[in-house]
Amino acid sequence: MILTRNYESLLSDKFNQVENTMNDDSDRSSQELDELIEGVRRGENFALEQVFNQYFPYLVAFARSRMRSRQLGGDVEGVAASAMRSFVSGAGAGRFGELKTQQDLFRLLSVIVLRKSIKYTKRDGRYIHISEAGDDSSSNGFFSIRSVPTGPVAEQALIVQETLDQLLQALGKNILQSIVLMQLEGHANPIIADTLRISIRSVQRHIRLIRQTLKKIELADNDD
Amino acid sequence: MTDSNDEETSDAWKQFEQSWRRGNPLNLWEAISTVSPVYRRDLAVEFAMIDLEWRWRLNIDNEPRDTRHYAGMLTALQLDAEHYVSMLEHEFIVRSQWGDRPTIDEMLDGFPSAGELHSVLETALDENFPVFCFLKKEDERLLEHRVKLVTSFGRQSADDADGKYSISFDKASTRCVIADANETAIAESHLEIKRIGADRILAEIHAPNTNCLAADQPLLPHQPSELRLPLKLQLENHQIFFDCGF
């Protein structure tokens, strides 16, 4: 019954699997990441460029896979770019202090993309069925990156993205989905409770349900 | 718990929460009466916490309720120590967030077996809510960390002359080093901070010429001061904020 801390352990198994790979592949210490985020906060071009180069292709791929899985067309690069802008503006406002590893940054950016893609489809109001061959027709031409990154990091990153996506779909568009997104964005339970106008204990109860759902997804994955 | 039990508990929970959101809260005993007797005790404790929280959040009582009130109210259910700790921990979070931010001693004053509960509660809070701190300089927010114990603030390397700061971590204590752009080496720590309770830290100035203020009162060198969270320290032209990381 004792309160447990924010359920940052949600998805932790999957993320931990990814962490080693990502850290091995391009080890970024907490200090280096602090410097990078600091650079973004200060609007330093070098840091912005570095974040853009390293993460933008993943975000485009993620936005594309998410929108494709829902049979939605749209400006995937626009969604990824919008997520990147939100990140830069959030960092400039002093948020994201909890980022310690490259994995944390990746997770945060993925969540922002998820939010953006949800908002995009809601705002756009048009559900465009896309053909397998024609998905790039939605590109605004501003960004030329079309290739999905490859290699172990990309593969592991995709696992995280898919698990997140599966989880959100399983939860449906309800309060549980909002809680997952807010938790992954690093909001504390009292803030979530305040925002959603529910009690902290209810937030914690919902988190337990989310964990159960995640466990079921993982079990189903293992059965496959 | 079977599915049907789970469902009736969920329904009761939903109704109780909604009654608060609608501004017409259900009576706690009525709210638990719909579930099987075997689950009523745990649910009553949960509802007591929800009841307490909304009363503080909405500021609707002349005499806001505390764990002591609910302990008295639920005596017949023969709660155990774990229930009390859960409720106390919740009360501490709620009152810190939306209320008067009591000390743990104040919360436990007059509580049966307060000494025992004190140490269990401190441990639980320390474990679940690590100290949160961030550093500001002239209104620019430099760093923010939420860690169990924060140790040193300082430049990352001796040749980093343009004033970048870092915080690293140590489980034993918090050493605080502020270097300015004129210094070429990491200085000895100006300040050492230890968490000595869920809501208290001990601060000690090391460098004799360091100007450090806590609530506008200067901290004197080599004289440890016990300070309460949340805390804002002014160290030279930097501000360091400490709080429980709820």
UniProtKB/TrEMBL annotation, chain A:
Gene Ontology biological process terms in this record: DNA-templated transcription initiation
RNA polymerase sigma-70 ECF-like HTH domain location: 31-215
Residues passing through the membrane, by range: none
InterPro entries listed in its UniProt record: HTH_Sigma70_ECF-like, RNA_pol_sigma_r2, RNA_pol_sigma_r3/r4-like
Highest taxon, organism lineage: Bacteria
GO-annotated molecular function: DNA-binding transcription factor activity
Matching Pfam families: Sigma70_ECF
Protein name: RNA polymerase sigma factor
Organism: Rosistilla oblonga
